[in-house]
């Protein structure tokens, strides 16, 4: 009777560990649900809204397209390693139970510039390679930001901004984002 109990307990532990490993592999390499935190993407995305993020682009180091909404690691001045890719989904799980485990390093933003682009911020608008961007997704018709010198996006980087331009921390403040810091592409907002 005692051996049967031990065997059944070990079977349950094995099943739970296997399920967690499979979930981690899916979250690291394929798809991850997440939530919007903050108002930097208003009116496109809202605080608390759920997102489905595809991750294989991060693994393949795919360059996102203009206008693509992405999840980034905002710590652009540090190298990312595979440990970060494993640790972040784990911390997501832990933060469900312990809110203090939640970090503010992962942001959702829109790609505005790609390698080689020259970006200017003048007259309340973004200009890319000498042309004013038409951005119907932005919250305000003009942005309260200007810069006297243009920004050239370096190779292997993207320039990202929030749609709520007047209330967003983004590449204007942290600089261009290395493509290995683009953690995934937003595919669905629920």
From TrEMBL:
Keywords: Hydrolase, Membrane, Protease, Transmembrane, Transmembrane helix. It holds the Pfam family Peptidase_S26. Gene3D superfamilies: Umud Fragment, subunit A. The chain crosses the membrane at residues 12-31. PROSITE patterns: SPASE_I_2, SPASE_I_3. One of its GO terms (molecular function) is signal peptidase activity. It catalyses: Cleavage of hydrophobic, N-terminal signal or leader sequences from secreted and periplasmic proteins. This is Signal peptidase I.
